[in-house]
Amino acid sequence: MSEDRAICKAGFDVAAPAKGLKSDVHLLPLGDIEARDGRRWKLTNPHAVVAATKAHANGAPVAIDYDHQLMHTAENGRPAPAAGWMTNFEVRANGIWASVEWTASAADMLASRQYRFISPVFAFDKNTGEISKIYHAGLTNFPALTLTAVASAQTPMATDSDLTTQLRRLLDLSDTAPASAIIEAVKGLQGKAAASFSPDRFVPVEALEAVTSELNRTKRGVTADAARLAVERAIETGRLVPALSTWAIDLCTINKPAFDSFIERTGGGMQQLFQGSSVAGAAHQPSEPQPNLKSEIAAALGHTRAPKKA
User: Fold this and answer.
1) Statement to judge: residues 34 and 136 lie in one domain
2) What is the rounded average pLDDT for all residues in the chain?
3) Is residue 255 part of a domain?
4) Range name among 70-84, 212-226, 230-244, 272-286 with the lowest pLDDT average
5) Which one, out of 29, 170, 280, 290, has a CA that is 20 to 30 A from the CA of 154?
6) Would you say residue 36 lies in a domain?
7) 226 with 249: CB under 8 angstroms?
8) Contacts with 51 (C-beta within 8 Å, 6 or more apart), sequence order
9) Residue 275 falls within a domain, yes or no?
10) Are the beta carbons of 186 and 218 closer than 8 angstroms?
């Protein structure tokens, strides 16, 4: 097997240990692994990787350093202090985990968020990308993978890999369906939902009827020709004076019921007020209207009478 070594800057958000200086960290997810920079690997036999990692460590704890200084100390001559020691490796439902004993300084830096992510260094096959064992790991602030974040209470959260698997199952896709297929399936569901949308499933019928009634209430006018005809009839029957024809046509065009109400309330008074004029066809002059009739007409026209001066 043609083997190579890779630094996998994983997006595992490492929390400060809940009690003492110990906690568990998620090192690698299962299945196909794609880094944010485009590199690809796969972990199909995690138990074999754990066995090879333990054999390589030969019973000694495996170091976690800062920013992978262990790999660069020969070049830059700087020391590579340990942030923690991985004392055990195990396979869980979402990948390979390690038990870590952190140093006091590393625990403090994790608590103050000076460091947030862990990055494993592992061996893999150049041809297949298959991971074979883990060498060590480093705390980093430049993640390339998204792994499970462990809270202080150490409650695991879902990884991207877990979510992708669940989506494939929910959408009835194959286990190897790419992300593009998942996206297209979701778009298809959105299209079906939009096509089957019906307002009465989400909005009460009473609310729709109330809105419709209000719209109808504010749109009760008639056409200009119909309004003109209604006003001419009112003038011919003596229930409206010609001087009000323009105003009456406008009112009838906008709100026919308001026009009808005006004619009903004032039409009789108009006949009495102008009885004997050319409107009614009589020869004598109209008699003085009653004060209450004048007031009613003035109110209907929106006018008020100025009080007489003493």
Assistant:
1) yes
2) 74
3) yes
4) 272-286
5) 170
6) yes
7) no
8) none
9) yes
10) no
